[in-house]
Amino acid sequence: MTPSTATTSAAASTNAAAPTTTGPTATPLAAADGPRGRRHLLSSADLSLDQVRAILDTAAEMHGVQQREVKKLPTLRGRTVVNLFFEDSTRTRSSFEIAGKWLSADVINISGKGSSTSKGESLRDTVLTVAAMGVDALVIRHHASGAAHQVSQWVDAHVINAGDGMHEHPTQALLDAYTMERRLGSLEGRHVLIVGDLTHSRVVRSNLITLKTLGARVTLVAPPTLMPSGITAWARAEGFDLTHDFDAVLPSADAVMMLRVQRERMSGGFFPTAREYTVGYGLTRPRLDTLVAANPDVVICHPGPMNRGLEIGADAADAAQSLILDQVSAGVAVRMSVLYHLLSGNDDQRRVPRSAWADTSDGRARPAAPRSAGASTAEEGTA
Amino acid sequence: MRPDFAAPSAVEPTAPAPEAVPADDSRSVMTESDIARVLRRIAHEILEHNKGAADLVVLGIPTRGVALARRLAALIEEVEGTPVAVGALDVTMHRDDLRRQPTRSPMHTDIPPTGIDDKVVVLVDDVLYSGRTVRAALDALSDLGRPRIVRLAVLVDRGHRELPIRADHVGKNLPTSSSEKVRVRLSEPDHVEDQVTIAGGETR
């Protein structure tokens, strides 16, 4: 059963940044050409269909480089990319690092742990310090929603959001779309299920936006406790479906994207036991059989890291329909493409002197959940 | 620096776009049959130089170089009776002017399964101008393998070289002023009759 079926507003592509806020949210296309004349990738909503297509087509060419003996292109020679990770990450950080290196950029990794952040330095001071060394791009992951947007107001470098709290993770959405397209062909009209911990997932928001841009039909599946508040209104505005009944929508799926149950962001009480979650919403062996029986060409994705046995069974994770390792491989190609599209081109001619520093208010991105994305936009005009 | 018009194909991958130059101001310098004759001659020159079709790999530089490479390969096959490996070599990621121009999307690179190691690679482009596209192509090639010999075949050589590069096989030498534009149109990518036109420059 589908408690809310979406109907309205084909053109409501803008207010997608934060489902729990009702006011104006992170700027869509304007953010792609930021106040300092820089192009950033902060939100999936920054990208038009043409831009998504350009990134995915370039990614396909970059994927070929992965097959080569010499995995190196001279394209970004002399450019510096800093990976600034305030949260743990294996695949995102390493794939950004490999992507930068294969394009001949100099890549430096800075993690929150072991940097001056642990001595109490604010986010603003940390990024200004890093930016002062003359970096060309900052890849940032932070536990606060809206952090990347905030950083883009402070620095004179291209900012790429590699995950900000529970808000967005645009490169993940791009690589998911890329991986699914390679197996399924065009995503236009395809039915994609996104299942699991919607409340704590940044992947879901970015994926929804990108999949909608590409014309896919999306259904979100989760227990009521893991649906973010206000999602019904969001679903109505954006035109996607919601359901609590995984088994009912299973047979109509072209792709199933399982989300990780983010225990580190949960303060208990979202579901009674892990076993009960698996029975209701895990991609178990019986569900895999139903899925494949209904559509042998179905694909299974998971942004990783997986909790095997919780949201996804080993059978499903290792099935022929599983694209989980393809997603990792695509991650490098897609991030090469994103770095290329942001860092090539001639917008660097107009370097803006950093005079507006004093105007921005407090340095720390707010620790709150998606709401702070809205909060950070309030400061936009001052930067 | 002026943009590199040596490869209008790479600059505007999507576009037969005659809007920049009024039609009356452009002069035709090569017709469909001129181009066909010239390609046939180049095919024979390549075979003569190489003493046959052994080890030949013909690589076109997108967009129009690829179409020309396919035609050349077909002509060589017609003469020799053996198929010739043909492919495409995109040079976008190796260009030296990436930061001077709006971002361009890379085109498809398609290396024949035989590879290029120890082969005789013939690079094919439509117009040879500054030579920077060819330099990028040589760099791109060296990332893909080590050919025994690299040759360059172009439909039009319009002069104004900025690098010490020359073509081994030239369809037509076309003295131009750098304010003029040489435009190659081919039936495969452009859906028009094959022709080379020249436009702009001083009015006469």
Description:
The complex is a heterodimer of chains A (383) and B (204). Chain A has 383 residues and is α/β, with parallel strands linked by helices. Chain A folds into two domains: 160 residues, Rossmann fold (3-Layer(aba) Sandwich), CATH 3.40.50.1370; 160 residues, Aspartate/ornithine carbamoyltransferase (Rossmann fold), CATH 3.40.50. Helices cover 36% and strands 12% of the residues of chain A. Chain A is built from 14 helices and nine strands. A five-stranded parallel β-sheet of chain A has the order 7-6-5-8-9, covered by helices on one side. In chain A, strands 2-1-3-4 form a four-stranded parallel β-sheet, sandwiched between helices. In chain A, strand 6, helix 8 and strand 7 form a beta-alpha-beta unit. The relative contact order of chain A is 0.19. By secondary structure, chain B is α/β, with parallel strands linked by helices. Chain B is built from five helices and eight strands. Chain B has a five-stranded parallel β-sheet, sandwiched between helices. Chain B has a three-stranded antiparallel β-sheet with strand order 1-8-7. The longest helix of chain B has 19 residues. Chain B starts with 7 loop residues before the first helix and ends with a strand.
Order of helical and strand elements of chain B: HEHEHEEHEEEHE
CATH class placement of the largest domain in chain A:
Alpha Beta
How many discrete domains of chain A? 2
Q: Structural class of the secondary elements of chain A?
A: alpha/beta
Distance between the termini of chain B: 26 Å
Share of helix among residues of chain B?
25-40%
Q: So what's the overall shape of chain A?
A: globular
